[in-house]
């Protein structure tokens, strides 16, 4: 007979999900009510306001899609891409490739701008493609590339898109809550994110926001939106303002309790303080890793604080090392993807997993594991190097 499932206790420091705060887990255990209950509708309005705060936007169409970040991505593309539309798609890792897949599935023409994995999206390469075409409909790029730990210059890319009269579609799955993100100030037109990274809510919900320019494009489509569930003109009957809501789908009630609590915690901390916290703990982790003799695989000026790409020392068995850390310390870190598989570890410092305790545990587990495999590292230096950062920050 199959019995109840009780997951092991883990410390999550991979590329996501991150640790979920006890307050969020407790919120999800509250009594389930109907998805059209007036009390629930009131909470929906608060979630919209909290997402607008986190995204720094006044966009009325700001809401959580009842599905993971991949559905948020599809929601943006299925509403904004029509057959024959030329879309510039920037790829410098795994997730730019998924953007290309969406464009082509909805009949668009993907004009690819490719950069090496580990590099930021080249603004000049994008400009060169825009100068070759006078009918670009949108520019799509990943702000924080989870597969590499690279931050691209979203502000410059959005400014370029405005100069050439096209929309922007931005993947902010890993950036929301972890680094500066300014939807209105930067002129982002459509953006999708996820709950399981720097927001530290469970996976399964995708915040999205659409500008008035994006909604104008949706309203003037020549073809029907090919997805019923993700059609924003329909779902806003449910997520629109006011107490009267049109039934669209049964929202994941308890999961939204969790997102609400996570966003309340972010508001309590202050979004700019959250950005600073991720930067501080990243500095401590980096100092510790470098004191140990390890190298970061991304240049400092484009490095993500919340997703640290660390070069695996020569001769170390990647899978064995991660397995040992999971078994001996209950610590999960991420493997490299695609071209970086077996070459880097991806160490997440996201949301609730971004604390001094997490940094020190990771450094201790990594040092001991590498020593067991005979790595030529500097033992006994990492903790002190990290502590030196905290001393200057009074942490």
From TrEMBL:
Domain of life: Bacteria
Keyword Repressor part of the UniProt annotation: no
Keywords: Pyridoxal phosphate
InterPro entries: Aminotrans_V_dom, Aminotrans_V_PyrdxlP_BS, PyrdxlP-dep_Trfase, PyrdxlP-dep_Trfase_major, PyrdxlP-dep_Trfase_small, SP_NH2Trfase/AEP_transaminase
Gene3D superfamilies the UniProt entry points to: Aspartate Aminotransferase, domain 1, Type I PLP-dependent aspartate aminotransferase-like (Major domain)
Residues annotated as domain Aminotransferase class V: 42-337
Presence of the UniProt keyword Ligase in the record: no
Signal peptide interval: none
Named cofactor requirement(s): pyridoxal 5'-phosphate
Family statement drawn from the similarity comment of this UniProt entry: Belongs to the class-V pyridoxal-phosphate-dependent aminotransferase family.
The protein's name in its UniProt record: Alanine-glyoxylate transaminase / serine-glyoxylate transaminase / serine-pyruvate transaminase
Origin species: Marinobacterium sediminicola
């Amino acid at each position: 007979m199959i019995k109840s499932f009780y997951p092991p206790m883990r410390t999550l420091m991979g590329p996501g999900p991150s640790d979920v705060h006890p307050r969020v887990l407790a919120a999800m255990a509250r009594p389930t009510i109907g998805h059209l209950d007036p009390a629930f509708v009131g909470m929906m309005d608060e979630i919209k306001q909290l997402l607008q705060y986190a995204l720094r936007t006044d966009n009325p169409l700001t809401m959580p899609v009842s599905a993971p970040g991949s559905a948020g991505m599809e929601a943006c593309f299925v509403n904004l891409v029509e057959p024959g539309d030329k879309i510039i798609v920037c790829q410098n890792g795994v997730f730019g490739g998924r953007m290309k897949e969406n464009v082509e599935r909805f009949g668009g023409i993907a004009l690819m701008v490719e950069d090496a994995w580990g590099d930021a999206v080249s603004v000049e390469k994008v400009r060169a493609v825009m100068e070759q075409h006078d009918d670009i409909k949108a520019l799509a790029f990943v702000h924080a590339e989870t597969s590499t730990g690279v931050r691209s210059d979203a502000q410059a890319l959005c400014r370029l898109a405005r100069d050439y009269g096209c929309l922007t579609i931005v993947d902010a799955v890993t950036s929301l809550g972890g680094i500066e993100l300014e939807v209105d100030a930067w002129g982002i037109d459509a953006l999708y994110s996820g709950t399981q990274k720097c927001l530290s809510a469970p996976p399964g919900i995708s915040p999205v926001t659409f500008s008035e320019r994006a909604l104008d494009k949706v309203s003037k489509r020549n073809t029907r939106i090919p997805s019923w569930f993700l059609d924003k003109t329909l779902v806003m009957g449910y997520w629109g303002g006011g107490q009267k809501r049109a039934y669209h789908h049964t929202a994941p009630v308890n999961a939204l309790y969790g997102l609400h609590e996570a966003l309340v915690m972010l508001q309590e901390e202050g979004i700019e303080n959250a950005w600073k916290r991720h930067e501080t703990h990243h500095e401590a982790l980096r100092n510790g890793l470098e004191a140990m003799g390890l190298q970061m695989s991304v240049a400092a000026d484009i490095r993500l604080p919340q997703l640290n790409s660390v070069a695996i020392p020569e001769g170390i068995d990647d899978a064995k090392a991660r397995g040992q850390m999971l078994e001996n310390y209950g610590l999960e870190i991420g493997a490299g993807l695609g071209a970086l598989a077996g070459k880097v570890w991806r160490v997440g410092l996201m949301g609730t997993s971004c604390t001094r305790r997490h940094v020190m545990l990771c450094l201790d587990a990594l040092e001991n594991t590498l020593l067991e495999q005979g790595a030529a590292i500097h033992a006994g230096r990492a903790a002190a190097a990290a502590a030196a950062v905290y001393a200057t920050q009074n942490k």
